[in-house]
Structure formats: structure tokens, C-alpha cells
């Protein structure tokens, strides 16, 4: 389909290139050794052009044949299609004329695609900042301290503005004003420093677990300790706990057995668990602990406790996992918590810009660390992977990331308004 479209547009590209060079149709036809009438048919895509003629036309136009036959490629076409589909306008864009836009105005088409990429990056940044403003405890405390100090300074200034204030009290209030202003300056400086640190990649981790996740992501989820981790003391402790757990899972389910089963049944944790005779939760954790380069598809992982708190995250494209606050209550892993005896396989898409078909496998572990007299402890895992061979519109958008980040207009489980 793409190839047919490109062939149809070869003539339009020849016409556009000729117009750019201010070359008449007769002059180009003469240089290519064909008649002007035949070139006219080619330029209006009413005749296909042979390889020899194409080569002569390309030389006359100062370009190469591939540029005339392939244009700017399917990536630009797909980018313009995406813009037309996602961004509403009145009147709506003429989607049936995208080919003409990319052919006749390649610079403008590339600029539209580049602006869309920039808008996507800015939206992602705004979303991350909105989530951080809503749920980051360190940021909330810093902002609260600044606002409290501003309120104190305003009250002191109001008292000092009154007439007839005793000199002793006036001196005391002046001293308070000086101390509060100094505290405000220090608090604002700390707040600015904290926000600036958050701009750097992987430096905005505010918990040891986030340090571990960032380190693992940078190392392709490999636990190779040949080089210094560069983590804080608390981060190294959290990494040691994670390593011990991964090692314990690997002892029970070695790499060789897992990789052999993967070749036999494919990426399906439930079938793998049956083949290997292992718990589904262990199989999911083992798959998520393997390097990305060793897997047939990219994988993401979510691990939660019985209260729904996120304990571990492995990001995958198309599935946004919030760093702060509660996740979307419609995630399949929360459904699995309600039916711990029945693992759940679901297909879904997540609301948002980078929506794509996904599938997930969720399962729950129930343990009694304190013995039969102790409480039941639940820990659930959800493996997420891109769904191959399925059109995007074939899977409904059924989940979000969190309420603050979800644009769904009507959701039965919404707890708060969206930031955007």
C-alpha cells in the first residue's frame, strides 16, 4: 500500500522539484530525452516512469532517483497522520491530501512533524511536573514552608505599619521580620535547588527504590556489579535487597530452563508457569529481571502490596507508571488482588498521547511471614508487553496512569481532576 502510494506520487515530486529549480516542462523533457506531452502525463501520475527515464530526469533535476520515488518516507507520512488524528481543528485537516502536502511542501510537512514531537515532549514534561506538584512530599513540604514564612512576614509587616507601637516591641518585630526574611530566602533557595536537581536525568529520585529502578534501567536491567553503582547508602541497601530476591528466584528457576521454555511456548507467563511447574508470580518476576536485549518483546513490570502501593516499576513504552500517588484503579493488577486464586490476562490501551495496544498478565502471592497466627500479606505483580499483530483501534482504551494524568472525560473510578 505504501509502495503504491509512493509510486503514484513520483510524478508530483518531479513536478515540485522542477518548479523549485524554475525549469520549464519542455526543458526537462528535452534533457530527459522524452516528449513534453509524455512528461506532462508522468507529472500528473497518469503514466508510470521507467528506470532509465527516471535516472535521466533525476540527473537533470540535480537529485537521485530514490528521492523522487520514495519522497520523505513513511515516517513523515505517519507523523502527519498522527497529528491529523489526535489534534482537533475546525475545519478538520484534509487527511486524504497528506501525500500532496508532504510532496509539494516538504519543508512545512517536516516542520509540522517536528513541532508535534516538541509538543509531545513538553506535554510529557508538564504531566511529570503536575504529578510531582500533586504528590511529591518533599516538594509539598518545601512549598508549605515558603508559604508559611510569607504569611508570617506579611503579618509582621502589618503590625509594624501601625502607629504608636512601643519601641521595645518594634525592635522585636524588626528582628522577627529579619529572621523570617532570611528563612524565606533559604527556603526559596532550597526549593529552587530541589527543582533544578529534578531536571537532570535520573537525579530526581527521592527514594532508594527509585534510585535502584533508575540504575537498573540505565544498565539494561542487568545486575552486573563490575562497576561502582554510584548509589546512595540507602540506595545500595535497596539494591542489595532486590539482588537477593532476584538471586533467590533464579535459584528456583534458572536462566537455562526459562530460556528453553520461552523458545517452546513463547512469551506467555501462564503457559510458562505450566511448563516449568513454577508459580506465576515467580515466572513474571524472572521475565522482568532479564535484560531487555534477551527478550522477544519489551517488558514492563508493576509490583504492588495489598494496599495498592507501588513497590517496583519497570517502564515500557505505551504504559505510563506514576511515580507519586495512587495508580489507576482499573489496572488489571488491582483486579487480581480481588481474586488472588485466579491470575488475570488482559488486553488494553492506556489513555494518553502514546497509546498503543498492550497485554498484561497479573498474579498474586499470599504469604504469612509471621506464621499461621500472623496476618496474610499480599503482593501482586503485573507484566506488561506491547501487543503484536493487533491494530490500535482493535483494543479499547480502558485504563489510565493516575487520575491526575488521565484525560478520560468520564471515568467511574476518578478520584481527582486531571492536571491537563
Automatic annotation (TrEMBL):
Residues 14-68 form the HTH cro/C1-type domain. Gene3D superfamilies: lambda repressor-like DNA-binding domains (1.10.260.40). PROSITE patterns: HTH_CROC1. Pfam families: HTH_3, ScfRs. InterPro entries: Cro/C1-type_HTH, Lambda_DNA-bd_dom_sf, ScfR_C. GO terms for molecular function: DNA binding. SMART domains: HTH_XRE (SM00530). It comes from the Bacteria. This is Helix-turn-helix domain-containing protein. It comes from Palleronia caenipelagi.
Amino acid at each position: 500500500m505504501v509502495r503504491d502510494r509512493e509510486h503514484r506520487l513520483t510524478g508530483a515530486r518531479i513536478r515540485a522539484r522542477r518548479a523549485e529549480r524554475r525549469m520549464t516542462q519542455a526543458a526537462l523533457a528535452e534533457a530527459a530525452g522524452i516528449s513534453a506531452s509524455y512528461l506532462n502525463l508522468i507529472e500528473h501520475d497518469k503514466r508510470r516512469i521507467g528506470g532509465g527515464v527516471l535516472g535521466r530526469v533525476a540527473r537533470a533535476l540535480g537529485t537521485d532517483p530514490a528521492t523522487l520515488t520514495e519522497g520523505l518516507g513513511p515516517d513523515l507520512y505517519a507523523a502527519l497522520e498522527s497529528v491529523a488524528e489526535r489534534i482537533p481543528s475546525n475545519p478538520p485537516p484534509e487527511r486524504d491530501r497528506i501525500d500532496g502536502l508532504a510532496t509539494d511542501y516538504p519543508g512545512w510537512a517536516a516542520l509540522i512533524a517536528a513541532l508535534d514531537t516538541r509538543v509531545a515532549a513538553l506535554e510529557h514534561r508538564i504531566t511529570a511536573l503536575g504529578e510531582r506538584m500533586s504528590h511529591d512530599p518533599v516538594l509539598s513540604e518545601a512549598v508549605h514552608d515558603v508559604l508559611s514564612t510569607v504569611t508570617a512576614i506579611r503579618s509582621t509587616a502589618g503590625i509594624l505599619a501601625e502607629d504608636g507601637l512601643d519601641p521595645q516591641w518594634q525592635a522585636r518585630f524588626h528582628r522577627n521580620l529579619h529572621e523570617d526574611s532570611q528563612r524565606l530566602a533559604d527556603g526559596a533557595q532550597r526549593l529552587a535547588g530541589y527543582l533544578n536537581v529534578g531536571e537532570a536525568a535520573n537525579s530526581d529520585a527521592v527514594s532508594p527504590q527509585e534510585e535502584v529502578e533508575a540504575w537498573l534501567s540505565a544498565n539494561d536491567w542487568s545486575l552486573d556489579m563490575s562497576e561502582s553503582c554510584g548509589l546512595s547508602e540507602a540506595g545500595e541497601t535497596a539494591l542489595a535487597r532486590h539482588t537477593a530476591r532476584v538471586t533467590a528466584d533464579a535459584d528456583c528457576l534458572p536462566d537455562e530452563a526459562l530460556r528453553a521454555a520461552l523458545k517452546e511456548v513463547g512469551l506467555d507467563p501462564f503457559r510458562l508457569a505450566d511448563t516449568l511447574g513454577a508459580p506465576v508470580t515467580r515466572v513474571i518476576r524472572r521475565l522482568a529481571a532479564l535484560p531487555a536485549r534477551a527478550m522477544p518483546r519489551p517488558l514492563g513490570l508493576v509490583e504492588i502490596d495489598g494496599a495498592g502501593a507501588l513497590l517496583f516499576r519497570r517502564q515500557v513504552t505505551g504504559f505510563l507508571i506514576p511515580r507519586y500517588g495512587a495508580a489507576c484503579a482499573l489496572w488489571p493488577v488491582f483486579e487480581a488482588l480481588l481474586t488472588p486464586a485466579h491470575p488475570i490476562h488482559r488486553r488494553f490501551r492506556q489513555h494518553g498521547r502514546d497509546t498503543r495496544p498492550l497485554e498484561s498478565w497479573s498474579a498474586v502471592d499470599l504469604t504469612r511471614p509471621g506464621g499461621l497466627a500472623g496476618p496474610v500479606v499480599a503482593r501482586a505483580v503485573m507484566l506488561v508487553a506491547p501487543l503484536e499483530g493487533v491494530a490500535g483501534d482493535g483494543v479499547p482504551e480502558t485504563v489510565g496512569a493516575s487520575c491526575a494524568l488521565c484525560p478520560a472525560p468520564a471515568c467511574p473510578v476518578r478520584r481527582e481532576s486531571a492536571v491537563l
